[in-house]
Amino acid sequence: MRIVRAVSAQTDGHSPDHRQAGPTVVRMLVGAQLRRLREAGHLTREEAGEAIRGSHSKISRLELGRTGFKQRDVADLLTLYGVVDDDERAPLLALAAEANRPGWWQAYSDVVPAWFDAYLGLEQAASLIRAYDVQSVPELLQTEDYARALIRSACADASTSEIERRVALRMERRRLLWRPEPPTLWAIVDEAALRRPVGGPEVLRAQLRHLMEIVELGHVTFQVMPFSVGAAAAVTGPATILRFPEGQLPDVVYLEQLTGALYLDKAADVERYWHILNRLGLEAEQPAATTAILHRVLREV
Fold it and tell me: Where are the beta strands (DSSP E) in 94-153?
């Protein structure tokens, strides 16, 4: 397992909306381009670091998109890499400047831990989001009251104002499902999550009715893993796979923990999680049955 890395972007007309993606993805794209130029010139990180009065570790952080860019550093690196034509330099310099602008979620920096900031940028840039959860409805599909009940339970010592800030952030994230070109969302949820009385019966019923409405969106697929499947549904805990417009970034597996998260993009790791989610998709009730299941659960809770 290793932390997410960037790969080279391609000018194939399939690029994320950087204003939506925020600085995380833009930094990764700029870093990937700089790495590709350095490798094409057969230069080491140490040599590149000397050109910007830095170290090889600084070049590594820049190429991985883990830090912001100084325009002078990018300009000096482009010169070192032989990119001297102003027309060729301008796009990457502009993108580097954009990478330093905060994403919309920076307004919620008081309630966004550092390890989650990267996910918010990746989520906004994804073209496909696949999720599996056994405990609760995925966050992008939650109602305000359902989200509030979960957050209040998870952050028992938080003030009312902090809880409301966290709820507001979660509701803002949902907007991506109503963008002109929204990502495809494919979620599989254990039946237990649909029956757990988060916030009480009325909150749960409202959440189920919300799911009935949202599954009507053409870009949302929602499947239920019934109790009858048994142990097969327990092959993994909650997991999310993010896929991006072709050629931009590698698929990323996001595994959230209590005090941090793992971002995996190693081919073997990603392939394993794709296999698991595909298997779960076959074992779960098929999407055509989702509405009937939600109606049944609604009557029984």
Answer: 128-133
